[in-house]
Specification:
With about 190 residues, the protein is mostly helical. Helix content is about 90%, strand content about 0%.
């Protein structure tokens, strides 16, 4: 074991040794800070890449979900329109059959009056059915729109939460880097003072 004189010794070799030690410690601290900053920069870049990839993935998923919803809604609307046209065809066929039957029964004035009354009643029934069908269709369409808006809001909320999470990670990395830079500046000032 090498014994060195205490600091109070005015020996020039002891002062040189202390300066050398301080320079070496400062260099080690500087190298450690650089490697830590480099590591933090790497982690930050990786977090940004992951964040960007996640946003792209979520956007693609959102676009897919929206297109699936649109296809399902278009299919549902097509089915409803088909059912509506079938109802119209049925009403026309039923009305035509009733008119033909009434015309075959008799051609006198009372038959014509009955026919007009029957046509009027039939038109009222058809109008009522049409109003009911339109209300049902409007209700179903409103429900489909409500569900689509809800699903869209849920996906948007998920995306916002993920973005907030990634932003918090970036803030933490910045705080760590600021702390490291502050420590490095302190070490630099200490070495300059000594």
């Amino acid at each position: 074991m090498i014994r060195r004189p205490p600091r109070s010794t005015l020996s020039s070799s002891s002062a040189a040794s202390d300066v050398y030690k301080r320079q070496r410690l400062l260099q080690e601290a500087h190298d450690t800070s650089r490697s830590t900053i480099s590591e933090c920069d790497t982690r930050l870049a990786q977090a940004r890449r992951e964040w960007g990839d996640e946003i792209v993935r979520m956007n693609d998923k959102h676009v897919d979900d929206v297109s699936k919803l649109r296809r399902a809604h278009e299919q549902e609307i097509g089915e409803l329109m088909g059912r509506l046209s079938e109802a119209k065809e049925y009403s026309r066929a039923s009305f035509t059959k009733t008119v033909v039957d009434n015309l075959h029964r008799g051609g006198n004035k009372s038959g014509f009056t009955d026919y007009v009354r029957l046509v009027t009643e039939r038109l009222q029934v058809l109008e009522e059915r049409q109003i009911v069908k339109e209300k049902e269709f409007a209700t179903q369409l409103a429900e489909i729109k409500r569900l689509a808006e809800y699903e869209l809001a849920v996906e948007k909320e998920k995306c916002d939460l993920l973005i907030d999470q990634k932003n918090n990670e970036i803030r933490r990395f910045r705080v760590e880097m600021d702390d490291l830079l502050t420590d490095m500046a302190r070490l630099g000032r200490k070495s300059a003072i000594q």
